[in-house]
Each structure stands twice: as structure tokens, then as C-alpha cells.
């Protein structure tokens, strides 16, 4: 497997300076060097300039991306000339501040502030958003995130070993998306834009799982996956993980701090909203700010509510869920991510304002939500013809000063009445080898389990490969765990299916069904689908000496002493036959169990 880092670990900056000496000169020299290189490069490139001409790009569709990006690379030699005199003055002033600093803490804080006040940022923010090569931004970001970049790979490997214990981290199917998508088994299907290859997608999934397991601050943020995707184009997997962790910790500390007195400034300073409530308020704040800043936004807001039955905050929320794509062209998507990483959430407000202002007349003519989506999706067509139009698009949002008025108490009509399901993501630790299931099958089944069971792990108590093809042996093994839950897995010639029951197989004196409505049956292959209790009856599990069955009025699963069975359309679960249907009788399907495994669920 190849690496996705563009520089070797030996090239990473070393924070442990000799004798703790801090050199602003080297910092400015480094930035100057990067600027000279980037502007010189931009002056020589042709129209098909490769925006990602690094060692090993991980773009999902490299040709498509290059074609789009090549049109927008602009040349800014004049910008570099303007920087020369400003940098000379800035270097002298900053060097004096460095000499007056007395301890490491002050030096560290000063270094961070100097980066933010550097002429490259202060005077040319717009140029940064429009044309700075990613390789230059990478080095600057490493200075902004002032932590030890050494041994990150080693530390990250330890984290992965703990999270993916006894499992292959390359076989990840279910991924926590920190949003309200129900179908989260395939990450790519829940992203509107994917420009990573298969290796990059795996890295994205591993990072999301690592964040979920090691940072309980963040519960809801639909933008997170897009930010990680962008960073993976510039940094290694371990670097991206620790950068995201730094952003999350910074977001939490800003929310809890007292030194930012302006409530709106506090809401827009950090990078990530951490839960659904804060995300909802952030979107509602966007509506309040743009209406206050511009009378045209008030007209759009009124049109949305009266004609389309939606609101500005709802439209803005949907844009974030899609990473602003396809409402903006790909090159603009990269620049938004760059600006967001530096400036935080307020960038998203500015981009939203740019979109609404750009489509002002067209939006007022929309009569349906479909027309609204088509109008926003037309942005790439409008901007793809020239770099000038792209610049004008950014100028609208980034140069317009959205007013920092006092926080307006949100009206109930401004809040989105979205019901977000509380989902629990957990990767089960599978310690015993299964002769039936791959690890991604376990992930799939754990997705179907009730939430309060998802933190449990499977323990294999019976396997035909180990314990023999005997119903009696199965009962003897199950007897040791009669008070625990049961996960039954059956493999036939062409199918894998099974059942979860909240009670174990147990021959009872009274010949009655037992179990609760938590029980369900499912098919894993070829068509993964769970069938939950219909509530029509409570006949879940019946056990006899010579057979057992799950479900009544035609059981969903029936298995006898020879491990031969049948599966029917069962009223208990409203299920179809779980095995491939018999050609002569669609409603009854006989099968020979090639393999059977039983698991119980526990915290062990």
C-alpha cells in the first residue's frame, strides 16, 4: 500500500530548536522562500498547470480535477512586488518583539500572532483565497498549528492499534459521518463531491473512526468529512488526524472562554460546531446576519418562506451538508477549504452570502425547491468561463462586511424542526475467527442492533467447524449461556442470513415461545436487509429437542437435528424467505446449513 503523504517524515519541521532559540528570521525567510517559489512558478506555467504537481497525488478523478483547476491558475507577480517593502518593515518590527520576549509561552503566543499578522495574510487574504498553491499553504499551516510534528505517525499507529484491535483497518464499511444520514454504510454515497482515490477514502474512514473513538466533544458536524478530505490532499493521514484534533480542541476552548466578549464573534471564531443544536443556531445566525447586511437578502428570505415553504437557514444548512458542491465549482471548493482552515466558520457565512448575491434575480423567480437547487447548481457554468468571474464571486462575500449586530433572539420560525436520530457508532471487537462472516458483515449487523446493544462485542460459543454438525452439541454449548443474548448466523450455498434474539436457545418444559420484540431476523448476503418485529405477535423463539424455529405463522428460520432447515415469509417479522427461493414454491425455501455459528454479546 502506498503512502498518501507528499513529504517524508524527515522533511517535517522540528519544533525542538537547539537550546530553545527562537528565530523569527528563519520563519520569515521560509515564508519568503515559499512566496518567491510560488509566484515564480505561477509566472512560468501554461494553461494546463498541474495544481497538484506533488509527489503522489491522491485525487479520486485526477484528469477531471486537473482540467478544471488548470483554467483558474492565475499569475500574481505584481502581488509579490508589493510584498517586498512591507515584509522588510514587518521583519524589523517583529524581530524587536522577539528580542523583548522573556519566556517560551510568550514566544509561542507571539509567533502565532505574528503569523496571523504577516503581510501575506493581512494584506493579501484575497490572493490567498484565489491563487496560492497548496504546497505554500501547507508550510504556512504547519507554522500556524504550532505542535510537535515529530513522531506523529508513531502516535497515530498506536491509536489505530487500539481502535482496530484484531481487525483489519482497511476493511471498513460503516463510518461515523457525524450527521443525520441513516445510510452511512458507504461513505462515498453520502458525500456530494469525492476527489480521493480508494486509498484516500480508506484514510478518510480511519480518521473519522479515530476521531469518534478519541474525541467525544463532537457529536454532529456535516462539514467534517469534507475538511478531512481536503487536508488529505496536502498532509499525511497522521498529520490530518492531529490537525483535526487541534481544531476540535480549539473550538471547545473558544466556546468555553471568557476573553471573547462578542457573542457573534465567539460563534464564528472556531472551526467546528460540536452538536446539532450549535449547528442549527449557526445556520439561523447566517439568516439573521445576511438579512441585516443587505435588503436583497430580506427579499430572498421572504420569497423562500412564502413561495417555497423553506428558509434561508434551511438552504444554508443543505449547502453545508453537501460541502457547497455542486453550488460552487471544484476550484472554489478548494479555496473555501483553505480559507475555512485559516479563518474558521465565518468563511461559510461569506460563501453563502456570495451564492445568494450571485443568484439574486434567479432565486426570486424560483417557484419550486427543484428550481432552487438547479439555480444554485448553475454556479459552475457561470464561473467556469474565466478567472475574473471567479474572483468577482469571492469578492462579493469576502469583501462585504456582514454586520456584527447584537445577537438576536431566534424566533421559533427561524429554527429548523429537523428530527435527528441519535445514532451510536461502534466497531465491534471480533476476537474469534468466523468461517462465515467477514469483518464488514459484523459492522453491518451492528448497524441493525438496538442502540443499547451496539457497545457490546460478539463472543463465539458454537461453530460447526469446531464443535461439529450437531443440534444437540449446539444446545449443550448454548446451555452454558442460557441467560444471555444470541446471534445466530447460517451459511447456505448462496446465502448468509441469521437472527438476533434477546434469549439464548434453551429447551423449556413448557412448550411456549419466548423472547421480546427486540428480536429480529436478517439477510447478510446477497441482499443485506433486517426484518424487525411486526408487533402482530410475540412468537419469537421456540425450542424443541428435535428442532427450533424463529417466528410463527410460518417461521422465518426453522432448523432440525440434521441442520437442514426452511425459511418462510413470516408474519412475526413481515419477512421474505431469507434463503434463495425454491423454484416450485416461492413462499417456502428449504436449505442445507453448510455452516452455523452462534455468538453471545457482552462487554468482554
TrEMBL record:
Pfam families from the UniProt entry: TLD (PF07534)
SMART domains per record: TLDc
Domain TLDc: 435-597
Listed InterPro entries: TLDc_dom
Recorded superkingdom: Eukaryota
PANTHER family: GTPASE-ACTIVATING PROTEIN SKYWALKER, NUCLEOLAR PROTEIN 7/ESTROGEN RECEPTOR COACTIVATOR-RELATED
Name of the protein in question: TLD protein
Organism whose genome encodes this protein: Tetrahymena thermophila (strain SB210)
Amino acid at each position: 500500500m502506498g503512502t498518501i503523504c507528499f513529504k517524508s517524515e524527515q522533511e517535517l519541521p522540528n519544533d525542538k530548536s537547539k537550546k530553545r532559540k527562537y528565530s523569527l528570521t528563519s520563519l520569515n525567510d521560509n515564508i519568503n522562500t515559499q512566496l518567491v517559489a510560488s509566484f515564480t512558478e505561477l509566472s512560468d506555467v501554461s494553461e494546463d498547470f498541474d495544481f497538484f504537481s506533488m509527489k503522489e497525488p491522491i485525487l479520486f478523478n485526477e484528469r477531471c480535477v486537473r482540467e478544471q483547476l488548470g483554467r483558474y491558475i492565475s499569475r500574481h507577480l505584481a502581488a509579490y512586488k508589493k510584498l517586498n517593502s512591507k515584509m522588510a518593515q514587518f521583519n524589523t518590527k517583529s524581530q524587536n518583539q522577539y528580542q523583548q520576549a522573556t519566556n517560551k509561552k510568550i514566544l509561542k503566543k507571539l509567533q502565532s500572532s505574528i503569523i496571523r499578522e504577516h503581510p501575506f495574510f493581512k494584506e493579501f487574504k484575497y490572493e490567498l483565497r484565489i491563487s496560492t498553491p497548496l504546497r505554500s499553504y501547507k508550510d504556512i499551516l504547519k507554522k500556524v498549528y504550532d505542535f510537535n510534528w515529530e513522531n506523529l505517525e508513531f502516535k497515530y499507529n498506536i491509536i489505530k492499534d487500539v481502535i482496530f484491535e484484531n481487525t483489519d483497518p482497511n476493511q471498513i464499511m460503516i463510518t461515523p459521518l457525524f450527521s443525520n444520514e441513516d445510510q452511512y454504510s458507504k461513505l462515498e454515497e453520502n458525500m456530494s463531491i469525492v476527489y480521493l482515490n480508494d486509498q484516500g477514502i480508506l484514510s478518510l474512514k480511519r480518521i473519522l473512526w479515530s476521531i469518534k473513538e478519541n474525541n467525544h466533544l463532537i457529536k454532529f458536524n456535516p462539514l467534517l468529512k469534507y475538511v478531512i478530505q481536503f487536508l488529505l490532499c496536502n498532509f499525511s493521514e497522521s498529520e490530518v488526524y492531529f490537525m483535526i484534533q487541534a481544531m476540535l480542541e480549539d473550538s471547545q476552548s473558544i466556546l468555553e472562554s471568557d476573553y471573547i466578549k462578542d457573542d457573534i464573534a465567539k460563534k464564528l471564531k472556531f472551526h467546528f460546531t460540536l452538536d446539532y443544536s450549535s449547528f442549527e443556531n449557526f445556520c439561523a445566525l447566517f439568516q439573521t446576519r445576511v438579512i441585516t447586511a443587505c435588503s436583497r437578502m430580506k427579499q430572498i428570505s421572504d420569497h423562500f418562506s412564502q413561495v417555497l415553504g423553506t428558509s434561508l437557514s434551511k438552504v444554508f444548512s443543505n449547502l453545508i451538508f453537501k460541502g457547497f458542491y455542486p453550488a460552487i465549482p471544484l476550484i472554489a471548493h478548494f479555496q473555501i477549504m483553505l480559507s475555512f482552515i485559516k479563518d474558521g466558520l465565518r468563511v461559510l457565512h461569506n460563501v453563502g452570502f456570495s451564492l445568494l448575491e450571485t443568484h439574486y434575480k434567479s432565486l426570486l423567480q424560483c417557484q419550486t425547491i427543484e428550481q432552487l437547487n438547479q439555480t444554485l447548481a448553475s454556479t459552475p457554468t457561470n464561473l467556469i468561463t474565466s478567472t475574473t468571474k471567479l474572483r468577482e464571486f469571492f469578492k462579493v462575500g469576502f469583501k462585504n462586511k456582514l454586520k456584527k449586530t447584537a445577537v438576536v433572539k431566534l424566533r421559533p420560525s427561524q429554527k429548523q424542526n429537523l428530527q435527528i436520530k441519535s445514532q451510536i457508532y461502534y466497531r465491534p471487537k471480533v476476537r474469534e475467527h468466523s468461517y462465515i462472516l467477514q469483518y464488514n458483515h459484523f459492522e453491518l449487523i451492528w448497524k441493525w442492533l438496538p442502540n443499547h446493544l451496539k457497545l457490546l462485542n460478539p463472543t463465539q460459543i458454537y461453530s460447526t467447524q469446531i464443535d461439529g454438525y450437531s443440534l444437540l452439541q449446539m444446545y449443550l454449548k448454548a446451555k452454558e449461556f442460557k441467560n444471555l443474548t444470541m446471534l445466530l448466523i447460517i451459511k447456505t450455498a448462496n446465502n448468509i442470513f441469521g437472527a438476533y434474539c434477546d434469549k439464548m436457545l434453551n429447551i423449556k418444559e413448557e412448550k411456549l415461545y419466548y423472547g421480546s420484540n427486540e428480536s429480529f431476523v436478517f439477510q447478510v448476503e446477497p441482499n443485506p436487509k433486517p426484518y424487525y418485529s411486526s408487533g402482530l405477535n410475540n412468537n419469537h423463539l421456540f425450542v424443541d429437542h428435535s428442532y427450533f424455529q424463529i417466528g410463527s405463522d410460518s417461521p422465518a428460520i426453522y432448523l432440525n437435528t440434521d441442520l437442514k432447515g426452511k425459511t418462510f415469509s413470516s408474519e412475526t417479522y413481515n419477512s421474505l424467505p431469507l434463503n434463495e427461493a425454491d423454484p416450485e414454491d416461492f413462499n417456502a425455501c428449504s436449505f442445507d446449513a453448510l455452516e452455523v455459528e452462534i455468538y453471545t454479546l457482552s462487554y468482554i
